[in-house]
Every structure is written in C-alpha cells, then in structure tokens.
Amino acid sequence: xxxxxxxxxxxxxxxxxxxxxxxxxxxxxxxxxxxxxxxxxxxxxxxxxxxxxxxxxxxxxxxxxxxxxxxxxxxxxxxxxxxxxxxxxxxxxxxxxxxxxxxxxxxxxxxxxxxxxxxxxxxxxxxxxxxxxxxxxxxxxxxxxxxxxxxxxxxxxxxxxxxxxxxxxxxxxxxxxxxxxxxxxxxxxxxxxxxxxxxxxxxxxxxxxxxxxxxxxxxxxxxxxxxxxxxxxxxxxxxxxxxxxxxxxxxxxxxxxxxxxxxxxxxxxxxxxxxxxxxxxxxxxxxxxxxxxxxxxxxxxxxxxxxxxxxxxxxxxxxxxxxxxxxxxxxxxxxxxxxxxxxxxxxxxxxxxxxxxxxxxxxxxxxxxxxxxxxxxxxxxxxxxxxxxxxxxxxxxxxxxxxxxxxxxxxxxxxxxxxxxxxxxxxxxxxxxxxxxxxxxxxxxxxxxxxxxxxxxxxxxxxxxxxxxxxxxxxxxxxxx
Length: 481
Prior knowledge:
single chain, 481 residues, alpha+beta, Gyrase A, domain 2, 38% helix
C-alpha cells in the first residue's frame, strides 16, 4: 500500500467472478497458504482519492491487518474510521493466481467484456424445477466452476473425480458459490455434468434461451472510433452514478447516428474514387470522333449521399449533442443561436469554464459551415453540381463537385473528423464535471494505447495523479490523435 498524505491511497483489492463490484481490500497471504488450494478471485490494483480522509482510508486497511495478525489486540472500530468517507476506487490493472500459486496478469481473452459470457447449464429435479445453474470459467492454466442456486457446490464437484479433487474447495458469496481454481478444462467440466446426469436423479441440460448477436459495424474494438467514441466514453460514463442512466439514454442514439455518418462518408468517397479509377483506365470512356461518351453516371448517387450526410451530421451536431450535454447538466444551446446570442452565451460560459468556451468558439466556425450547407440544400435551392470532364491529348479528367469551395470528398471527410472530435471532447469534458470529487481524466499518449482497444482517456486522481487532460480543438484527422 502506498499512501500520499491528503491525496489518496494506492493498494490492492479483491473482486470475485460473477460480482459487479470490488469486494474488499487484499492482504497478501502468508507463506505456504496457497499450497493446498488456489482461490478464484481477481486481485486488482486500485487508486482511491482520499483528500483529507486519506489517513482514515489507510487506517481502515492497517486495522484489518492488525486484526488478522495480532489476534486479541484491543483495536478501534475499523468501520467507524471510514464512516461517511467517499468509497470510490479507480481500477488500474488485474491479476489472478495460476495453479502454481503465482499471481499473473489476467490474459486479455479473460478480461470482462471481451467475450460473450459462458452459457449456464441447468440442474433440475424430475419435475423440471431448476435447482441450480453451473458455468465453467477459464482461468489461467485451469478452470473455475460457478454455481447459482440452492444446491451445495461441494456435492457436485465430487463428480469431477481424479486429481481435480485434491485442490477442491468452495468460496461462498451472496447468491453464488465458486470452486477453487482447479486443474480442469471445459471438457472435464462437461464430463462432470454427464456423470451428474447418469448417477443422480437430477437432469442437466443447457440453458434454453437463445443469444442473439447482431452486427453493429464493420469494425471492432481495435478501431479508434469504436474504442474511443463507443467503449471509451461509455466506460467513463460508469463514474456518473445516479446520472449514468440519463446519460446513456441520450448518448446511444447519438453514437448510432455517428456510425451512419461515418458509413455514408466512406460510401461517398469510395463511389467517387471508383469512378475516377474507371475514368483513368478508360473502361467507361468511349471516344467517337470529337464526341466523348462517359458510360457511367454517379451524379445522383453523390447527391443522395451528400443529402444523407448533411442531414444526419447537422442533426447530430445540433439536436442529439445538446441532449447529451443537457443530461450532464451543461447547457451549450447558445452555440446554435444567432451571433449576438452566441457571443453573450460564450462570454458567460468563459467566466466559469474558459477551456470549454474557447473550444466552442472553434466549433462554431466549422459548425456554421455545416449548417449553412444543410440549410442551402433544404431551403436555399442549392444542389450538388454534376461532375465535369475535360480532355487533354486523349486523357480524360474528372472535376470533383464542391461544397463551400471544397471538393466534396474532402468536405465530408473534414466534417466527419470535426464532428467525431466534437462529440468525444465535449462529452468527456462534461462527464469530468460530474465525476466524484477527487477524480478527473487523463489522456493516454498515442504510443501507449493498446492496439487491441486504443482508448484515449481513463480516470485518474484530480491531484497527484497522471497529467490532467484539458479540452482543446484539433486540426488533424480523428484517427491521428
């Protein structure tokens, strides 16, 4: 345990499989304690912001240690030490024991959320009443059996037989029972179920419900979009406590629309690039004397994609983003008002949140260009011009349509990047303003982000932790920062 006076505590805690929260502090076992059994538990490094109550948090752990290793000593009530103290922990990393009793990092494939949870098996009596459910959890070089229900797990583990029983034992938690870490595979677990079925008056069958897995996008957690805007922001939202539900209800429609925008932008760019490639190859060009025939037209496709893009992007920028910030109790409505109202609103915001006010001034610039293009399309009679073609010494060249004087593919790419940055930056900034006292957000340097899930942010201590992130506008592409 590392204690920084008036700042916080860095220590280790225990979380049991099947439980959503940390169960309590972790004290290293005595020498030889893991010789006969290996507990099924995660050991996680945590950082607890303590502020003026850091001493209380330290004594809470010290008193637990004294109670175990100095039995009979007269000690103060350890729970009284932390009565009324904020109980918040930031998890930094996770470990669990292998069969040799060595504490090792949790493998990436075992991290919660990386895979679908294992399907449970039902243990039922002859009348069809479910007495318990059993699940197999892969664990370093062994496995763990998790039971929920009224049957004792001790009575079922005996059906494993063989060497597995030498280290068999049970950890009982509220609503569930866990075996110790056993030298078994999933095949051994299934053989145990077959023996229960054959040798008892109970029936074992797989849980009848169906899991429906629906494709969300053509990219996974390794893409910056999914890691940062989807997984990363929602994980930060877990710190919101009572406001989490309202935030997620507003954020989910926004992120789904961003997926549509991203897809539309790519389809538009791919359509035009494919057309230009065909022009260069001559596959859609026919020369008949002085007349040049282009046998493929994509003007209607481009116009339709531009219409879809401008509509959904503007709706996300104005309407859906406001719902997110309102859920986080930050009002940015002035951003979308006339110049006078905007100036008054941003000046008032600068008095209480200067970084956000400066960021919104920059957002106003590109946001106005986006809204003007959409309004021109819907109300001003503007429409995307057709592709024009020129011939020079037998070479045909296509001239790309423009929006606001910018080639359409560049305009769409630029606006997509600006919008994704805007959603990420403003949402994270607003989440930080609602986080518990003593906590804040740090930005993970680009070289240090995981290739499997390159999230940009993580929680940290407000004082004495990692460098604190501050909102600032960007000029580069979204995937480059």
